[in-house]
Amino acid sequence: MSSVKKKKFPTIADVMNLSEADFAANEAGKLSDLQTRRLQNRRLMWGLATAGALLMLLLGIVSLVVLLGIGAGSDGGIFVVFGFVGFLWTALLWQMPLKWWHANQELQAGDVQQSEGRIRQNMSKVPIGMVQPTKYYIEQGENKFEVSKDVFFTFKNGDPYTLYYTPKTKFLVGAQHIRTDDAFMPEDDTWSDDVDEGYASYASDEPPMRQRQRQR
Fold first, then answer.
1. What gap in Å lies between CA 151 and CA 45, rounded to an integer?
2. Per-residue pLDDT tens over the stretch 113-166
3. Which has fewest Cβ within 10 Å: 12, 62, 75, 89?
4. Using the 8-state DSSP alphabet, how is residue 155 labeled?
5. How far apart are alpha carbons 51 and 39 in whole angstroms?
6. SS3 for 88-150, per residue?
């Protein structure tokens, strides 16, 4: 009789391609080389978004100046549109310059913060014109981290984790599942599965647990 092989589900370390060296650096409060490169890529993205926001702001200002000069007649209609679009996208991207600036500071310092506690998974749709992309978040206490879909579904909603992240931009660079025995689980934990949204909601009045046995 052939033995049935158990399916091995990927861990957070597998999905984020993290090694023991990365976790060792995080435990010491520092970014690893891999995580530094990822933050550099994220800084580049925020920098491009910042440039786009500045261009949109310039478009809005120029359109407003032209509109004030020629009036809102038949010749000024296009500038009304340009001005509206420019200021709208500036409002949507207003956080990007601050994130870019903070990322520069974090790359210079190379520091990582960590926190332990139960996590909550959350998804939301962000309307951008005719498109409504889904954003995935991992929440722990007052911290909220945007993650990729693959990383999101590697977490187990309601379980305790150690999270490693940059202090200002809240960029999640790593995580470790804190294994717990049922005997230590709070008795009043409540679960409610939301099939339509594809994730479970978790609620508990108990304080976050701290357990030492970690799974990578």
1. 19
2. 999 999 999 998 876 656 678 899 999 999 999 999 999 999 999 999 999 999
3. 75
4. S
5. 18
6. HHHHHCCCHHHHHHHHHHHHHHCECEEEEEECEEEEEECCECCECCEEEEEEECCEEEEECHH
For residue 215, what is the enclosing H or E element?
strand 214-215
- Distance (Å, whole) CA 141 – CA 209: 12
DSSP string computed for 27-44: HTTB--HHHHHHHHHHHH
The model carries a pTM of 0.68
What's the CA gap between 207 and 197, in Å, rounded? 27
Residue 76 has pLDDT above 90, yes or no: no
Give me the residue label for tokens 């925020």. Answer: 46
What is the SS3 assignment for 192?
strand
For residue 170, which of 103, 92, 101, 97 has the smallest C-alpha distance? 103
In one-letter notation, the amino acid at residue 165 is Y
Q: Does residue 67 contact residue 83 with C-beta atoms inside 8 Å? A: yes
Widest CA span in the chain: 86
Which two three-digit tokens encode residue 12?
């957070």
Contact 60, 87 (CB under 8 A): yes
pLDDT band at 34 (very low <50, low <70, confident <90, very high): very high
Percent of the chain clearing pLDDT 70 (strictly above): 60
